[in-house]
Design brief:
heterodimer; A: about 300 residues; mainly alpha; 12 helices; flat; B: about 280 residues; elongated
């Protein structure tokens, strides 16, 4: 009962945030100098007027805002200003599966290997794994995705001919290897460092000394007693990890020519396609806010103290 | 204050990694400033006789040329200078905004503090790079806007740190004395709070610079930042990625330089943090 109330309170915080983002973005968009139909050559006045009225741009701002919100409630992001025959919703629906599969794979990889590497680095300090984790962190800090992906493409694609450099091919796994690796590397390194530090701290706790003193085998102590508290900070990092993967997917989709929403956002930004960019910002924000809520739920499971306090 | 700085400098001297990294940054910055003067080519001169030539001493194309025959030595160093300048300027913007915001929130306390920090919390949960992209779409590719929008992303951490420090400084006697002496809140923040938190802020600044450089390169890579014929490391990398099959050096030289800069700034920042806050390490 208490947990439901706790969750509802969190949800109550998320909805106004999203509303605020939508409102701020909408009015910022209308503040911008120049209209979406500005080309190098000016349109004839009557054509411009027709375009404006067909997209509802001639109505008062408040009416436009109300209409946008109303449509948004039905999942309609309005028409794209540049991809003439598509609505923004179509474009998002087209690109979403690609971005989603890239993102979930990268997140799963980052979590799985990050926690594993971090645990090994903490348990075997000053071993090869420990130094490899450190090296990975340094590499992830220094080499941004837009350098790493072309470089790996050059190495594995062009010189070694092991993997394709770009393209989607309906999600063929060979085309996913490089993009997913590059996307997962920064959060993976961060999660590994975090898990290492967290586990080292947990291992010093008296109740773990008790567990060892009882003669429990190593893996039982780690899996049954140490892992859950160790994962607390990692759970807190989930939302930033998703943000990092989203940001990375802009670059990765552009370089590798993957038809996901990241590429649409970049194209939309270059074309000044207002509705498309606005829709994308809303989608990305929603995903992140949802992620935040998920993290709150995870905390409830990982840390019983929150349940008691709520 | 001065004791702290001397101690920090001494500690930093004992940290060979951070020291080497700071020399490297200094060297790259110097090269970015004077390097282009040493080369007869200019950043936008098209050498049609030598398009996409690998690094060579002929015609002084020390780093080779790009697809249009523009000299990459000059372009890379010019781009480095632009990237560094944007990184430093955006850091300055984020510091000023963050320090003021944090100092006001921490000094005011109570309701205003809660409200302001709630705002920071909301913003830091959002993918801010998307808002930067959004802003560049709306207002075009203005250099000033680029500084401001990138800086606007970076101030959140500074605000949090400064607020925390301000909360503790606020309770000290000299602030009470200043209040008793009739100083205005603004004067107290400016004269007493800010000077006392500046040390911590500087450390985070060294860690903010690489972030800002990264943001700028990211935007320029996507074509949303620095525009042709000018270049920054990000746009040079984008050019290189397009040509990497035939001319890998166009990608590898600016990419390597960016990686070196990011690494060095992070090492110096970590070193400084360890030096001033030994407990963290």
């Amino acid at each position: 009962m208490l947990t439901i109330r706790y969750f509802l309170r969190r949800l109550g915080g998320a909805v106004p945030t999203l509303f605020l983002i939508v409102t701020a973005s909408f009015f910022l968009m209308r503040l911008a100098p120049g209209g979406p139909f500005d080309r190098e050559q000016a349109l004839p006045a009557d054509v411009a007027a027709n375009l404006n009225s067909s997209y509802g741009l001639d109505q008062p701002l408040v009416a436009q805002y109300a209409r946008y919100l109303g449509a948004l409630a039905h999942g309609d992001f309005g028409p794209s200003f540049r991809y003439r025959d598509f609505s923004v919703t179509d474009l998002i629906a087209q690109g979403m599966p690609v971005t989603l599969s890239l993102g979930t794979l990268a997140l799963a990889l980052a979590l799985g290997f990050g926690v594993l590497l971090g645990c090994l680095a903490a348990l075997y300090r000053h071993s090869f794994v420990d130094y490899a984790t450190l090296g990975l962190t340094i590499a992830a800090i220094a080499i941004p995705s837009f350098v790493l992906l072309p470089f790996l493409g050059l190495l594995f694609g062009i010189h070694l001919h092991w993997l394709p450099v770009a393209g989607w091919q309906g999600g063929d796994w060979r085309h996913l290897v490089l993009p997913v690796t590059v996307l997962s590397l920064p959060p993976l390194a961060y999660i590994a460092r975090m898990t290492r530090a967290s586990l080292l701290e947990v291992l010093r706790k008296p109740y773990l000394r008790t567990a060892f003193a009882k003669g429990l085998p190593m893996h039982t102590v780690i899996l049954r007693h140490a892992l859950r508290p160790t994962l607390l900070p990692v759970a807190g990092y989930l939302a930033p990890a998703v943000a990092s993967i989203m940001t990375g997917s802009l670059v990765v989709e552009t370089i590798a020519g993957l038809p996901g929403i990241g590429r649409y956002l970049v194209q939309g930004a270059l074309n000044r396609d207002y509705t498309l960019v606005l829709g994308m910002v809303i989608v990305y924000s929603t995903v992140l806010i949802a992620m935040g809520l998920l993290v709150d739920l995870l905390y409830l499971w990982l840390d019983p103290r929150i349940r008691l306090e709520a | 204050m001065s004791g702290l700085w001397t101690a920090a400098r001494d500690r930093l001297r004992l940290n060979p990694v951070a020291r080497t990294a700071s020399y490297l940054i200094f060297f790259v910055a110097l090269l970015a400033l004077v390097g282009p003067l040493l080369n007869p080519n200019r950043f936008d001169t098209l050498d049609w006789a030598h398009p996409a030539t690998p690094p060579s001493v002929i015609h002084a194309h020390w780093f080779g040329t790009d697809r249009l025959g523009r000299d990459l030595f000059v372009r890379t160093l010019d781009g480095t200078r632009i990237s560094l300048a944007i990184g430093l300027f955006a850091t300055a913007v984020s510091l000023v905004v963050g320090a003021l915001y944090g100092a006001i929130a921490g000094y005011a306390g109570g309701r205003l503090d809660r409200l302001m920090m709630r705002g920071v919390e909301i913003l830091s949960g959002l993918p801010l790079i998307f808002f930067v992209i959004f802003l560049t779409v709306l207002f075009g590719h203005h250099a000033l806007l680029l500084f401001l929008s990138i800086g606007a992303v970076g101030w959140l951490t500074t605000a949090r740190i400064v607020r925390g420090q301000t909360l503790s400084i606020r309770r000290q006697e000299f602030v009470e004395a200043a209040i008793a002496g009739g100083a205005s809140s603004f004067r107290i923040i400016r004269k007493h709070v800010i000077p006392n938190v500046i040390g911590t802020v500087v450390i985070y600044a060294t860690l903010t610079v690489p972030q800002m450089i990264l943001y700028e390169s990211f935007l320029s890579f996507l074509g949303l930042g620095v525009q042709e014929p000018h270049a920054s490391l990000g746009s040079l990398i984008a050019d290189g990625a397009a040509e990497m099959e035939a001319a890998p050096w166009i990608l590898l030289i600016p990419g390597g330089l960016l990686a070196l800069l990011l690494l060095c700034f992070n090492l110096v920042g970590d070193g400084l943090r360890d030096a001033l806050d030994p407990q963290e390490s």
